[in-house]
Hints:
Blueprint: H1 4-11, H2 22-26, H3 40-51, E1 62-68, H4 72-80, H5 83-89, E2 94-101, H6 113-130, E3 133-138, H7 143-149, E4 156-166, H8 176-183
Antiparallel strand pairs: 1-2, 2-4, 3-4
Helix pairs in contact: 3-6
Amino acid sequence: MLNELEQIRLSKIADTDHEIFALLKQRYSPRIFGDQKIEENQLRQLFEAARWAASSNNLQPWRFIYAERESEAFDKIVDCLSDFNKKWASKAPILVLAIYKKETDDGKENFHAPHDLGLSLGNMTVQAQYLDIALHHMAGVDWKKAQKRFNVPEGYHVSSAIAIGYYGGELDDLSKDLQESERADRQRMPQEDFAFKNEWES
């Protein structure tokens, strides 16, 4: 007999219009995590996946600061999150700040740096799913505060935060509204709204 969280996880498997890689269908962004510790070797696997992402001119502009729960650095990351994200992300086993280098080594703007950071996080997300680890990416982070608290050098930009942990946990650990969010069906816009052949369609 599946418990409610296991049922929710099954219900989150994407109902795709076209067949895609199973790990992509299974991935979703929970706000609760199991108690199992993320081992250092598994973290290394996640960052290794990010390391091998495609990047413009092979500049690899991504940088990461990560911390384990119950550490001073973890609490500093929590302090930089939006109030909404603090409510649940403070219980994640690992928190990460995702950062990109804004310029090339010769001082020119690297227009593609945010794109490349996104590619690295995509790699990390799929690798995590392969390990049965969940990632929840968060835009709700005070990047100016994070840059100051973590002494991020000039020329780098804190872009987002990520909560990492194994799928699992206790639904009752979330507030009622977040419990409903966990139960909600996944929604995506249809391809016709974003993939246009030959010319832009309004």
